[in-house]
Structure formats: structure tokens, C-alpha cells
Design brief:
Elements lengths: L6 E2 H8 L24 E3 L21 E3 L13 E5 L16 H14 L6 E5 L11 H12 L1 H17 L6 E6 L2 H13 L2 H5 L4 E7 L13 H4 L8 H4 L10 H7 E8 L12 H4 L5 H4 L11 E5 L25 E3 L10 E3 L2 E7 L3 H9 L12 E3 L1
Helix pairs in contact: 3-5, 4-5, 5-9
Length: 385
């Protein structure tokens, strides 16, 4: 049960320093740079029309722009590499077509991984997610189209990277992480890889996938396409077939074929995914990241879901910009697991070099290490923005 006492957020910040010992605090940018001084990045920015979702002239379905990717452009292939795909409404005008900044997200993820003693490279994957933030959901729906069409681009990058490492006789692993609508990019990429002859001929595999707060429908991990097209048992239930843009798919087969371990980290307390005015209004269905996979569907044998409600701190500002994260307003009460942006961790608003909490990233690293994540205890259990 949550503590009924509401304490201002600045008081909690001081108390939260005990969560991450000062000896393990990670400086902003400490693990982000390569020998050239810039963090590794794969970008497909300005590839799509933000108003229609159509591919722009001069781009194709698989092109991308890499920067300082270890093994592909600089140095040798690391023993493993992480690719993080951000969610919707990133890198635009705050409040108009953006809620967050991609470079900050990727850096905060590196801080959280380093806190858990993970030092292999993280490559950010940045896509045209800064569609209009609109009440009628038009920007949301266009972002879904763009996210799905970024799947083949991410797949091509992964294939190019694996081929390059193999040509140099350097063994490597790829681990994928997504936040929010970034899940659709990754699922679409898995589908592309599953149908790629070169990928299958070389017997490549994705070592692991982690979806954090996945903003895709809760039946899209099914191996049975009938759950997407027109589930006969619930044909007259709108949520089961509502898909006017043709974005939904059953990705279970691709997960089974392409990934060694697939994790869905969900949070029933997530106030963004649980907001009736957002996902459930726009998509007329339940998101995978809220309660896990829909009951009764046929999930892949590689599929594992974990409730991480108790892993994110009761804070309303994950990126440290001193503004409440969506959907919170000033004065709102925030509890453990409430903040959708907190899966990746929380930065100290007073000092961006300090990480207050690592969100659910301790679970991610524990899964990689086949260990158990440390239990967290937050006091107080609620704060006000």
C-alpha cells in the first residue's frame, strides 16, 4: 500500500541519493564517447514526411545514417553491443511535437547501464517520431506508420553490422532495447530479418530484446495472425480488429525465429499507457506495456514478461529538465511505477551528472547476466510534482 504522505519532490531528491551510492554515480557522457569524441548513433531523421508518414525523396526503405558505430565504422566489433530505440514525440519543439530529447535519453540509458556495471557500447537509434501532438490522434497514427517503416532500416543496419563483424572474424552479439513506441520499430525489424535470406543463411540471431513500456497492442506478440486480422471469437469487439492504418501485425513467428530471448517489461501502474485519453483512445486496445500480453494468445517460446512496477522511482521528472513528464502536471501526486519515462532511469534536476534511480535497467542487465535484479525500496512512496 502506498504511503499517504505527500512530500515535495525536492525533499525526495536528497533522500534518493542513498539509492545509488556516490562511488557508483555516473557522469553525464562518461560512457558515451568513442575515440572520435561523439556518441555512437544510427539516424533515420528527415527520412519521412511528418504530416503524412510517407518516405521522402532521396531515401529508400532500408537506408540509414550511422555515426561512430564500433566495428562498423570505428575500431573493432565489441563482444556485444546494445541498440536503444526511443519512443514517440522525441526531438522537436517541446509541447508541440516533442516531449523529450534523444541525446539525453541515450545518455541517461548509458548512465543506468554503467551503474549496473555494464560497459559495452550503446548505440542510439533515432527516427522521425516528432509528429504533431494532437488531441484527435493524427500525429500518433502517423508516428505508428513511420515507426513500422523504420523496421527495415533498423534491420538493414543490424545485418550490415553482423556481416562486417563476421567478415573480420570478430564474434559479437546484438541486444535491442526499446522504449514506448520504439517497440514497433523493433518488432518491424524482427519481421524484416525473419524474411531476409542472407540473415537466415548465416544463421544470425539477436541475443536479446527488451521492450520497456511497449506502446503496441497486447496481442501483437501472438504467433497467430487471426488475433490481428479478425479474431473470429470476438469479431464484433472493436478493439480486436480496429486498425485503420494497417499497422498491426502478429510478430510471434519473427520473435521465435530471430531472437534468443525476448523480454516484455510492463507496468500496470504506468500513467501514460494507462491514460484513457492516449493509447487506449487512439488504438482502441490495451498496450502490451501496461498489463503484458493478452490472455489466451499463442506467444513464442522465447517470450518472457516481467512486471517492473516496483522498479521506477516515485518521481515526475526523469530527464532532469525540471518539468513534469507526461501526463503529470505541477502539483500532481506521483507514486512508484507511475512515470512512463522512468523505465530508463531518472537524472538529478539539480546536477545532470548524477543519476537518482536506474529505473528498470537493473532488470535488463540482470536478464543479460542470468541473475536476479536487486529489490528496490523507495521512501517516501509518493511525491508531488
Amino acid at each position: 500500500m502506498r504511503n499517504s504522505v505527500i512530500i515535495p519532490i525536492f525533499i525526495l531528491l536528497a533522500a534518493m541519493f542513498t539509492l545509488l551510492p556516490s562511488s557508483t554515480m555516473v557522469a553525464w557522457g562518461q560512457t558515451t564517447t568513442t575515440a572520435t569524441g561523439s556518441p555512437p548513433l544510427v539516424s533515420t531523421r528527415n527520412n519521412f514526411n511528418l504530416g503524412t508518414g510517407e518516405l521522402l525523396r532521396g531515401h529508400n526503405s532500408t537506408d540509414y545514417m550511422p555515426r561512430n558505430v564500433p566495428g562498423l565504422q570505428v575500431g573493432q566489433c565489441p563482444k556485444e553491443m546494445v541498440v536503444l530505440v526511443h519512443g514517440i514525440w522525441v526531438d522537436g519543439r517541446i509541447g508541440v511535437n516533442a516531449l523529450e530529447d534523444s541525446s539525453e535519453i541515450f545518455d541517461r540509458a548509458r548512465m543506468s547501464l554503467a551503474h549496473n556495471h555494464y560497459t559495452n557500447p550503446l548505440v542510439g537509434f533515432s527516427w522521425d517520431s516528432n509528429t504533431a501532438i494532437s488531441i484527435n490522434g493524427s500525429g500518433w497514427n502517423i508516428a505508428k506508420l513511420i515507426a513500422k517503416d523504420n523496421g527495415p532500416k533498423l534491420a538493414q543496419f543490424i545485418l550490415d553490422y553482423m556481416n562486417t563483424c563476421e567478415q573480420h572474424n570478430q564474434d559479437t552479439k546484438i541486444r535491442l532495447i526499446s522504449h514506448s513506441m520504439g517497440a514497433r520499430v523493433i518488432l518491424s525489424a524482427l519481421e524484416s530479418l525473419d524474411s531476409n535470406q542472407q540473415w537466415n543463411r548465416n544463421n544470425f540471431k539477436i541475443a536479446s530484446v527488451h521492450l520497456l513500456g511497449a506502446a503496441v497492442d497486447d496481442e501483437e506478440v501472438s504467433k497467430n495472425i487471426l488475433y490481428i486480422v479478425k479474431n473470429p471469437t470476438s469479431l464484433f469487439e472493436l478493439p480486436e480488429w480496429f486498425d485503420p492504418y494497417g499497422v498491426k501485425s502478429a510478430y510471434g513467428k519473427a520473435i521465435e525465429d530471430v531472437v534468443l530471448r525476448f523480454y516484455n517489461l510492463y507496468d500496470p501502474q504506468d500513467k501514460a499507457l494507462g491514460d484513457p485519453k492516449l493509447y487506449q483512445f487512439y488504438d482502441q486496445d490495451r498496450p502490451l506495456g501496461l498489463d503484458g500480453a493478452q490472455r489466451g494468445i499463442a506467444v513464442p517460446s522465447k517470450y518472457i514478461q516481467i512486471n517492473v512496477q516496483d522498479k521506477t522511482a516515485p518521481l515526475c521528472d526523469a530527464n532532469g529538465d525540471s518539468r513534469p513528464d507526461f501526463p503529470f502536471d505541477l502539483g500532481a501526486e506521483v507514486g512508484i511505477g507511475d512515470n512512463h519515462a522512468g523505465y530508463i532511469g531518472f537524472r538529478d534536476p539539480a546536477n545532470h551528472n548524477i543519476l537518482l534511480d536506474d529505473g528498470a535497467m537493473n532488470v535488463v542487465v540482470s536478464n543479460w547476466n542470468n541473475s536476479t535484479a536487486t529489490q528496490k525500496h523507495f521512501s517516501p512512496e509518493t511525491t508531488t510534482c
